[in-house]
Request: fold
Amino acid sequence: MLLPAPKPEILARRDSIVRRLRVLAPDGVVADEAGLTAFDGDALTAYRQKALACVLPKNKEEVSAVLKFAAEEGIAIVPRGAGTSLSGGALPLADAILMGMGRMNRIVEIDYENRCVVTEPGVTNLSITRAVEARGFYYAPDPSSQIACTIGGNVAENSGGIHCLKYGLTTHNLLGAEIALPGGERVKLGGKAGDGGLDLLGVVAGSEGLLGVVVEATLRILPRPPVTRTLMAAFRSVPDAGQCVADIIGAGVIPAAMEFMDRNCIGAVEDYCSPGYPRDAEGILIIEVDGVAAEAAHAAERVTEIAKLAGASAVTEACDESERTRLWAGRKAAFPAMGRLAPDMLCMDGTIPRHALPRVLVRMAEMSKEYGLGFCNVFHAGDGNLHPLIIFDVMKEGELARAEAFGAAILQLCVEVGGVLTGEHGVGVEKRDLMPVMFSDADLAQQQRLKCAFDGAGLFNPGKVFPSLSACVELGHMHVKSGRVPFPNLPRF
Amino acid sequence: MISALTEADVIDAVRAARAMNRTLEITGAGTKRAYGRPMFCDDVLNVSTLSGIVKYEAAELLLTVLPGTPVAEITALLESKNQRLGFEPADWGPLLGTPIGNATIGGVLSADVNGAAAIRYGRARDSLLGVRAVNGMGEAYKAGGKVVKNVTGFDLPKLICGALGTLGVLTEVTLRVYPKPAQSVSIIVRDVNVEDGFALLRRVWQSPLEATALAYIPASLPLAQLGYVGEGAALIRLEGAHEPLKEKIAALLAIAPAAQQIEASSFFEAISSGAIFAEQSCDLWRISVPPSEAAGIVRHMGSPLFAADWAGRFIWIGLEAGGNGAELRALCECAGGQATLVKADKETRQRVAPFSPESPARRAVTKAVKAAFDPQNIFNPGRMWKAV
Ligand SMILES: Cc1cc2nc3c(=O)[nH]c(=O)nc-3n(C[C@H](O)[C@H](O)[C@H](O)COP(=O)(O)OP(=O)(O)OC[C@H]3O[C@@H](n4cnc5c(N)ncnc54)[C@H](O)[C@@H]3O)c2cc1C
Reply:
């Protein structure tokens, strides 16, 4: 993975930059080696890099002041929430200020009457639900990382979760945001009642820190459904499970969640926390339905019927809350459980049309043999959002490269069958060089022009998302040549 | 008028306009030509001829169509598989003086016009998964994808949705569609004033009943199909299979004991589309405010001509023709919302900005975004604001 070469003139000014930052964000600057090591990457663990300096602003004003200074000095900014990005979105750059939003962790307002919460960006995802659940509400997007990841990071990645099948991704639950632009000026987009004009909020969601720093967000909260029922269907063949997913959606049932795990994953999870999954199944689906009692009952019945027709060997239901929690605990422990099988893990994130599930699942198993690397499949089946986990060992000669090649091949397959490179984790640095698999030069140029409209100097999160650095002036008309080597002349990172 | 039959035609038209420094009015069926600031374009680029279903994958809940496809055709197609568009596109044609049923999907998306059910399923922008479009340089590009969950690259479809054709010409759109519930009932709570009516709608909205319509009309705008409404009527739609629906109705009765089922249901569309105001000579504004502030604003304005959708988040308000709406705008902005002038004569739309003016910082971003898509200002110049 190549990142833009650090600018020597900025590295040379490091001391004076740090001194200035200490004035702008008193007691919020980390500049010592040990401190910077703590912030030297995110959950794409294969990549590490220390920042020039790290700033932890306390409020919007400090954010703006730092951005103003950075723009004047031509210093790049890498925004960071909790650093749980799986695509390297929060990976620091040697010549950039890492702006950690973790100290802006106050919920500003809870407005039940208008069903929304106004929050600072550093508040964790789960805290929103925790803050409103006593009154029967919750915040729907629920990434598995929800105890750690922040709302700012969620907005930047347009994160999903288990329940976005029925309740949407972050963007569908985001009513407004205040963002700070390069130079520090702040703009309000949307709000409790939305706004008119261009849907700038719509493009800021999922912009991976490239368009602005989110300093406040207004989130929609939902009334908790009175009844939730959780079923588990076991299958003797993976394609059957894939077919079952397509059949359920095709039959007009939209479960609140529908998650798949394959045999490798079931075994790993059973060893790790024994949620009671059938070890002999080739795959299981955990399906949750909700609503008023009769609605959940109706959906549970339909799902059971369809699963049996699709060849499920058993369909069981969690009989109480503790069993339900246990079923989900297994799913949520998939990452750490797989993590015990090998030192390193790559989590892929393509989305495919649901009808292609059986075919893609079979092909991935073949590829695993071709690349000689173990993997397991655990994913948001209802959305067709795959999360193959590839396990490998960085210390073994060539394994990282092979794992990355395997991952890239999976994503290419996703695009080939009509899908996309990333369903919820973002492009970051990880999938950056694969963007041309899905997008033509013209497609990418249009996206980059939008980037330029917000950030003409390219100061926000450079080196992420786009495979080639085009100066904004070049994009005025189309001269992006195909086959351009990403970041030519840049040293290997 | 140039009529485009293919994306290549659109590209040719845009390149020609660019070369000759001419501006283009982009139009579908033209049902919303009277919406926004009046424009003076050199040519009209008609895309209603770029029409047809590209691919309907009912089992995937996906529909790809050309933008000139009439919404009516799409609705009928989806109906045949028991599906529908979640945002329940409203037809502004009758309100703005064109026949009912002409609107194209491209126009509906470009104006982001939503119906009652959008309160449950999200707005048009939430259903638009992917697009092909032609920018102001005459280049075709695609953005988004053809799957329900995608974060690859910037979400340009959202930006184009609601941009009123100022950023480019849509040439293909992919939409998420929804299964249609087995049954649907309309419910009326009669003789409630604005405060009580809106409060009731909010209570239902805050409950887990997942109502797919929460509207209100006052006595001054009687709809024959509703019968007696007293001071005004709160109107609710609940949906589901037979048993779940029974349970939801019972739960609703606990919130609103006076609720009654009624046969009619077309009034939801009449309210969402503004068709109930078609005969009125007033100027018609559409405001978007936090629901809890809605009743206060309606009371303060004192106009007998209003109707609410989305539990008060969207309200039509009729004001005296030719006014500048300054008071309404100030009230809405103060409440954290905004007001759009939807129907007025040309002179008024020229004089009064139909869309709320933006803050200077935001205006700068909007202008830069416009320039990023249409640097020569070819498409619908001045339709939203003078500069965009
Ligand atoms: C175990 C595990 C499970 C996960 N499960 C899921 C899942 O189910 N669904 C899912 O979608 N993701 C999942 N993720 C990925 C990750 O948690 C999400 O992408 C999350 O939203 C990142 O939030 P963060 O606060 O950690 O952001 P970071 O990782 O710190 O940053 C992510 C990106 O957002 C930008 N950013 C952060 N804060 C701001 C801000 N305030 N303004 C502007 N830009 C900002 C950064 O520059 C970076 O590009 C998982 C990750 C892990 C480790």
User: Anything to note?
Assistant: Chain A touches chain B through 93 residues (CB under 8 Å).
